[in-house]
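Subject: Sanity check before I submit

Could someone independently write out the structure tokens for this chain? I want to compare against mine line by line before I put it in a report. The sequence has 432 residues.
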Amino acid sequence: MSGAANIFLPIPMDGEGDHPKDGGGVNAPTPITPPLSLRDGPPPQAALGEERRADFPGLTPGWHYLDSAVTAQKPQVVIDAMANAMGRDYASVHRGVYARSANMTLAYEAARRRVADFIGGREDEIIFVRGATEGINLIAQTHPTKGRVLLSVLEHHSNIVPWQLAGWQVDVCPLTADGRIDLDAAAAMLTREHKMVALAHVSNVLGSVLDVARAAELAHSVGAELLIDGCQAVPRLGIDVAALGCDHYVFSGHKLYGPTGIGVLWSRKLADLPPWQGGGSMIDRVTFERTTYAPAPMRFEAGTPAIVEAVALHAAVDYVDAIGLDRIHAHEGKLVTATREALRKFNSIMLYGPDDSAGIVSFAMTGVHPHDIATILDEGGVAIRAGHHCAQPLMEHLGVPATARASFGLYSDESDVAALVEGLQRVVRIFG
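---
Independent answer below. Compare away.
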């Protein structure tokens, strides 16, 4: 971390609440200039959240962001990378012969190589897409042997609807009692008619982690391919697609502390897939009689790509990799454990998912709609998610219309957990 950062000291509040209407008015914290010894970064023993929180300008004092599973806040290095790419360095790619265009082309392709290295793939296996949703749609639409696809109860809508739209026959694998994909049941369900198995690496609701290597073994045993939705996994688990054994892996940039508008599809099967969209950049030669196409990955990136987003994603990958995903996962795991232990003390709260969930805690409170929980928490400066989380079949399985969900990032810390618990105590007081 470079440059001086403001350090804010907590200010005691009057009354039991933290919102003006509770009689506990909030005073603006006073910025204190750190001593010279701390201006180049925190002490080595600092917890990860404390160490890195100042890197994120969106994390304003007094605000507790617990919605990282939807989208992560952005570190300043990513913001700067995107601003420079859009400003002083901006030009199009793959076309211009002038120096700036050539340099931007190099930067764009460097981002592809960096992402490939980050997940253990090759650069010719990486396609930049608008997000994981587009990546799944691409595979569902272009796969040459559409047939049966095996999904699970906990899938995000983005891993359900594309298969339906593309005409696949959908089968659904159940869950274990603690909310994991039941791979024993999957083994019994799979047949030679299945051409694809498509599963979430980490559930966006339950935080349960899939044994991808075993899922790959099961899929391949019947001649099917395995697609993994890695949106929740990539920000918190080290990924090696070669070791996992899957055939396709998708994730979004904005959950990995990068920008919106860009995602990644890795596939070892690109050579077998036809072009999906037509236009500039993806062609070899065009005539009115016949068009030939560029090799992968270029033939899947029609039109002007997400140039500045790719550069910013490169910065995000560098940022996360420098910290270490093992450290991030361990940090989030401690916060999940602390949160679940604290919430178990509420007689009215039901917890969902396994105890070792990856960065996510979903819960419901008896007699209180999750939207009301989220609204009251927001009044106290705590931001959580409430709703069906784009997982309506899972909500039906759980027997609830919605859940409340707290999800952590590398910048989260114990104060966020404390604020959540305090806010839930207020919910209990309000609803009796």
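---
OP: Matches mine. For the report I'm noting this point. Confidence is low (pLDDT under 50) at residues 1-45.
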